[in-house]
Design a protein that fits this description.
It is built from twelve helices and two strands; from the N terminus they run αααααααααββααα. The chain is mainly α.
Length: 245
Amino acid sequence: MSQTKILIGALKAQLKAHGKTYDDVAKYLQLSQASVKRLFSEGNISLSRLESICNMIDLPLADLVLSMTIEHKKIDSLSLLQEQEIADDLLLLLLTVCVINGFTFDDLLQEYSLTELECIQKLAKLDKLKIIELLPGNRFKLKISTNFAWLPDGPIQRFFLKRVQEEFFNSHFKQPTEKLIVINGLLSLSTNAEIQKQMQKLSSNFAECRNEDASLKMNQKHGTTMVLALRQWDSSLFDEIRRKS
């Protein structure tokens, strides 16, 4: 990951910690909210604007650089063995997904039928796996980066494909909170690669929005899943009429 991207990620984390939003930054810099979002998404923030944003939250630039160093040490993914350990324990997997999505210890006990002991034991495993750091008073903080992702075709991804995909797509996608888009076309390899970049960018935007909503109360947010898929693929339905080469 580039140093600029890490620095921007650290700045976003500091803004969130100080309870500031893109709208607050926009008003302070006298820019539109769309312009500020574009600055952050493109990583195109000048040094003077960077200093201005730091001044807005009384954060010395040196402290931002220090937080960037800490962010850089966070993990982007787990090992195959670590993912397998989580995938083999359904309760551990549930808690892993929850803590990544901002659940607190009290949220977990309130939302699920867990005892304090069960919760503490699973969180201790996540601490051992370096996903969280346990703190006094049953608190914890994430040790994964904002770009954390499950391994492609890894144990977690395979688990969800096997256990969740049929249930996920068992919908007409007509509700206001649902959307399904299927597009077919003939694309060059370079265009395919560009689409994949845009998909990754959308995935990053989803993660940013999730982090921005983390401070909201649990009854103000809802479990939401986004699936992005792209394949160089033709349906077998057309095999019988396809001209043989």
